[in-house]
Design brief:
Blueprint: H1 2-10, H2 26-48, H3 52-69, H4 75-87
Amino acid sequence: AVVWDELKGLVRVQRLDSHDQSLLSPEQAFFLRENLKLQLLHARLALLQRNEAAFKSDLRTASTHLTRFFDTRQRPVAAAAATLAQLQ
């Protein structure tokens, strides 16, 4: 009974309807943020080069990553999403 109680404490069953940021390891979360930064920097370069197609594509990709992997209920994430929507 003691072993069974210990095992029940180690396992948690939960339904996930969307991606959960807690499922990312710290390394994955770091690289996700860095990739988002690179995507936005690439959008900036496309804007400076007057490449509208690349600019819009990069903003779309950044917006998708932001809403897919980050909690949009948090104020900074919602502000970033609103800014990306304005830029698009």
